[in-house]
């Protein structure tokens, strides 16, 4: 009777005997030989052992935890968002990278081909003509020598492209920035509304944007379209400081508009911005050090140029793509491969996008802003 009383007391207080414990069982499948379970499904079916949280959930390993829901009590995490929050367990890549909601390289290539095929707003040869002229070796890019007598852009039918809603939305945002780092950006309510319109116009009102959201939604990365839109707004337009402790920069400004830091052009990876500044006489095209394999738009160039007194040694950009395509592929790569190279497939050829996280400040629950994203050149 005393032994039975002790066993009853242990159960009442939440202690378990060997058969009812998760010791050595975390991540194993359901086993009817045990009175309780120690896998992620047990939370859903309410049949976890009493020490499941202490032994399995607080573990610093992803064994048996790949794809689990976020739990703030855990020291580290094993879901598809942990790379972006920089709080994955140390063995996440080994155990989970291709499990659950994680995105494989093959899936990235497949979705990028779909985005490419859906880009109905990209330029065609009848509306855009470029003249790359001088091709230089990478060893010559630092010489600051103008080797091209003519502009890069020979012809652009602005009426055909700029009347499209996504192009118009981009144009309204591009002129909202002070290019000098170290000087704080201040936006009016109208300018904030223009940021919101750009994100919604490109991501909610185009086939490209809707396809990207559907892909990320099906991978479990976003729970709703509004969740997706709001995260993109913070990720791209949230301000942080590159210089002098001023809120002087954002991922969008750096990548799409370009900045000046340390006496040089920083960022600047958008062909429409390049065209507008070249047309206005503020940008002088010097040469290119890389030309992609594509014979139709979009193409990729690595360019040398002078922007109103400041030099860019290699400014790579996708040429002739729509705003929604640029925004989609950079977002795809940053969300799925933050701080890494991202291998896309575009028209059957490989396009590598390099992304960088901004590690000095955060938004939301520790998420990182975009530091940079651009086509990697050889």
Automatic annotation (TrEMBL):
Keywords: Disulfide bond, Endonuclease, Hydrolase, Lyase, Manganese, Metal-binding, Nuclease, Repeat, RNA-binding, Secreted, Signal. SMART domains: SO (SM00201). Its EC number is 4.6.1.-. InterPro entries: ENDOU, EndoU-like, EndoU_C, SMB_chordata, Somatomedin_B-like_dom_sf, Somatomedin_B_dom. Its main location: secreted. It comes from the Eukaryota. GO terms for cellular component: extracellular region. PROSITE patterns: ENDOU (PS51959), SMB_1 (PS00524), SMB_2 (PS50958). It is found in: Secreted. GO terms for molecular function: hydrolase activity; lyase activity; metal ion binding; polysaccharide binding; RNA binding; RNA endonuclease activity; scavenger receptor activity. Residues 1-18 form the signal peptide. Pfam families: Somatomedin_B (PF01033), XendoU (PF09412). Belongs to the ENDOU family. This is Uridylate-specific endoribonuclease. It comes from Oreochromis aureus (Israeli tilapia). The gene is ENDOU.
């Amino acid at each position: 009777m005393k032994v039975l009383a002790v066993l009853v007391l242990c159960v009442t207080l939440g202690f378990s005997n060997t058969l009812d414990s998760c010791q050595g069982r975390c991540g194993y499948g359901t086993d009817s030989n045990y009175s309780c379970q120690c896998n992620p499904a047990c939370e859903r079916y309410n049949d976890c052992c009493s020490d499941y949280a202490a032994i399995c959930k607080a573990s610093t390993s992803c064994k048996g935890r790949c794809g689990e829901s976020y739990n703030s009590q855990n020291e580290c995490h094993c879901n598809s968002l942990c790379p972006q929050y920089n709080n994955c367990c140390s063995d996440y890549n080994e155990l989970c990278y291709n499990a659950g909601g994680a995105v494989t390289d093959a899936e990235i290539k497949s979705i990028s081909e779909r985005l490419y095929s859906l880009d109905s707003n990209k330029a065609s040869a009848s509306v855009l003509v470029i003249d790359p002229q001088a091709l230089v070796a990478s060893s010559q890019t630092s010489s600051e020598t103008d080797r091209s007598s003519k502009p890069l852009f020979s012809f652009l039918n602005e009426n055909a492209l700029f009347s499209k809603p996504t192009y118009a939305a981009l144009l309204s945002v591009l002129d909202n920035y002070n290019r000098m780092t170290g000087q704080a950006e201040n936006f009016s309510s109208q300018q904030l509304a223009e940021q919101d319109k750009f994100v919604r116009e490109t991501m909610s009102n185009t086939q490209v944007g809707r396809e990207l959201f559907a892909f990320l939604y099906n991978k479990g990365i976003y729970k709703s379209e509004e969740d997706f839109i709001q995260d993109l707004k913070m990720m791209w337009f949230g301000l942080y400081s590159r210089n002098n402790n001023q809120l002087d920069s954002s991922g969008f400004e750096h990548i799409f508009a370009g900045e000046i830091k340390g006496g040089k052009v920083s960022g600047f990876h958008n062909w429409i911005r390049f065209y507008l500044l070249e047309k206005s006489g503020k940008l002088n095209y010097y040469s290119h050090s890389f030309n992609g394999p594509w014979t139709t738009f979009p193409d990729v160039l690595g360019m040398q140029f002078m922007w109103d007194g400041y030099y860019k040694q290699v400014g790579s950009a996708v040429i002739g793509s729509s705003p929604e395509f640029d925004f989609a592929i950079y977002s795809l790569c940053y969300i799925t491969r933050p701080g890494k190279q991202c291998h896309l497939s575009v028209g059957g050829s490989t396009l590598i996008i390099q992304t960088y996280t901004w590690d000095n400040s955060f938004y939301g629950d520790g998420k990182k802003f975009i530091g940079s994203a651009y086509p990697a050149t050889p």
